[in-house]
Amino acid sequence: MPTSRPRSSDVxxxxxxxxxxxxRASQGNLRGKRLLKQRFDHRPDDVFISTFPKSGTTLVxxxxxxxxxxxxxxxxxxxxxxxxxxxxxxxxxxxxxxxLPSPRLFKTHMSYEFLPRAGRIIYVYRDVREVFxxxxxxQCRMGGWRIPVDDFARTFHRYRAxxxxxxxxxxxxxxxxxxxNVLFLTFDEMTTDRERTIRRIASFCGIPLDESQLPRIxxxxxxxxxxxxxxxxxxxxxQIELQLETFIRHGKxxxxxxxxxxxHQAKLERQTHELARRLGCGAEDPFGFLAGSARPTTGPRAxxxxxxxxx
Length: 311
What we know:
The protein is an alpha/beta fold and 311 residues long. It has helices at residues 9-23, 29-39, 57-67, 85-90, 94-99, 128-143, 149-158, 166-173, 187-192, 194-205, 214-220, 223-228, 256-259, 262-279; strands at 47-51, 105-108, 120-125, 182-186. α1 crosses α6. The chain is globular and about 45 Å long.
């Protein structure tokens, strides 16, 4: 991995800025809302995967793609079949969006206020400590060298645009987690119980699940399979350094403990606990782990079953 330090801090932050620009359909909330309304004709059966970056977006894209057909990997990229909404809007690819067959599947990093009120929304929560480490690795991979953690942390906390930072993004979605057209998942649940996650997503989206196809879906949504097809998921247009790690890393939880410096861990935890307090998250809440240091439970206790009355 390259070790020489760029001469300017602007160069240091350039890889992260390049990724975040794709999210910025515009600067400012009002202008961003206008842009979305003017350039995107939503449909009532659209399905949106809404996450903060590096929270399990790609896995849900793959699950939905596998559920909606034969799931062949003879595709240029996962974003060709489950496109990144704000990136396509910003690029002016309106014809592409209009020609997608219904139900259209989108990924987005936008906060709640920007998305249309119609359609189904799958929101994925991931521990901010995991997100920090995963996003850090992505920026090092895209930049081709090891970014100092302190410099990355400043950018991580300052991030704004149409999703806000991690805390603002979660805060925007929290009041809507039990609404009938919102399925609130945790990254832990998705990675430790893939079959249950697939069944929940299929039920939520009204997709009949062919039991004979379940082994194929499970296998193709495994980290091992997705790593073998890394080029279908990697956002880079070209490989900057071939020796760098792949886009699909390990898909596990808890690795942050060995990588996240103590000072940054403490800051993230303080901010998370303060957010939990402001959200009124008590110990009895299914997401009560936000208020303490314990990790979320997985499986049936992680979140309540989604309401089934959405049409």
